[in-house]
């Protein structure tokens, strides 16, 4: 079918297929979005490589062989597009554009003590690994405005909910011209729930939208791991402050 005496192309394809198969097995075991993203990237690289192979035809493959390569590339492209669409729905909440993260930690401490620690929003930079400095610009409770910074990046956020000893929320001003991150909308909510007189659950909820559609599948798998690590470190630091 390929009508070529140069077997190099078959060795290359075989090695690539073995590597591709190993990454699929890894993804099945790990079940991580970042692994799926890597598979999608390989799909598109396969398509690009196939186009280059057909266009340049360095191995003098027959028309029938090139047609076979083109058909396989089309199938792989179709798979890559559908995988991208599915990956874009990871962590979606209701509206396909909305993303949602939830983190919880049960701590052996009374509700009042836990609330006092997590509601110290002026010193959030002392416990949050992704924030270097915090400054309260105005107000307190609902309507409070604070500025935060991390490295050279800075932004402001407004408290949209404050229920004493229960929950509070901050919404980031993502529409500011100098806002440095790829979010159209970002809101964080922190809650405390009393389990018993000496046990409390901390709940952190993050709702957000990306500015661009492609960021849902290209950027989200990368940020998910980083976001989760940051949230767990924050919970660890709060737990240390409570001595539990």
- Which fold name fills CATH's third level, the topology of the largest domain? Alpha-D-Glucose-1,6-Bisphosphate, Chain A, domain 4
Mean pLDDT: 86
CATH superfamily of the largest domain: START domain
CATH architecture of the largest domain: 2-Layer Sandwich
Please give the count of helices: 6
Give me the oligomer status: single chain
Total number of strands: 8
User: What structural category characterises the helix and strand content?
Assistant: alpha+beta
**Largest beta-sheet characterization:** 8 strands, antiparallel
Helical proportion?
A: 40-55%
What best-fitting shape do the alpha-carbon axes yield?
elongated
What is the distance, rounded to the nearest whole angstrom, between the alpha carbons of the first and last residues?
A: 69 Å
Order of helices and strands: HHHEEHEEEEEEHH
Number of domains: 2
**Unreliable parts:** none
CATH class of the largest domain: Alpha Beta
Radius of gyration: 25 Å
């Amino acid at each position: 079918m390929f009508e070529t005496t140069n077997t190099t192309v078959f060795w290359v394809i075989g090695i690539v297929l073995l590597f591709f198969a190993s990454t699929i097995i890894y993804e099945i075991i790990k079940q991580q979005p970042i692994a799926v993203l890597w598979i999608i990237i390989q799909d598109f690289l396969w398509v690009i490589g196939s186009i280059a192979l057909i266009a340049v035809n360095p191995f003098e493959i027959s028309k029938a062989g090139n047609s076979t390569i083109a058909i396989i590339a089309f199938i792989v492209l179709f798979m890559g597009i559908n995988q991208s669409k599915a990956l874009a729905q990871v962590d979606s909440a209701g509206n396909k554009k909305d993303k949602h993260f939830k983190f919880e930690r049960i701590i052996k401490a009374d509700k009042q003590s836990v609330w006092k620690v997590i509601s110290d929003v002026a010193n959030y930079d002392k416990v949050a690994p992704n924030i270097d400095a915090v400054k309260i610009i105005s107000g307190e409770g609902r309507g409070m405005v604070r500025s935060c910074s991390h490295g050279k990046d800075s932004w402001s956020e407004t408290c949209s909910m404050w229920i004493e000893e229960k929950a509070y929320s901050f919404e980031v001003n993502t529409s500011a011209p100098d806002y440095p991150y790829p979010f159209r909308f970002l809101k964080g909510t922190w809650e405390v729930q009393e389990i018993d007189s000496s046990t409390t659950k901390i709940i952190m909820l993050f709702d957000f939208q990306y500015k661009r559609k492609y960021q849902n599948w290209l950027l989200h798998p990368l940020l998910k791991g980083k976001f989760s690590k940051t949230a767990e470190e924050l919970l660890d630091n709060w737990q240390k402050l409570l001595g539990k």
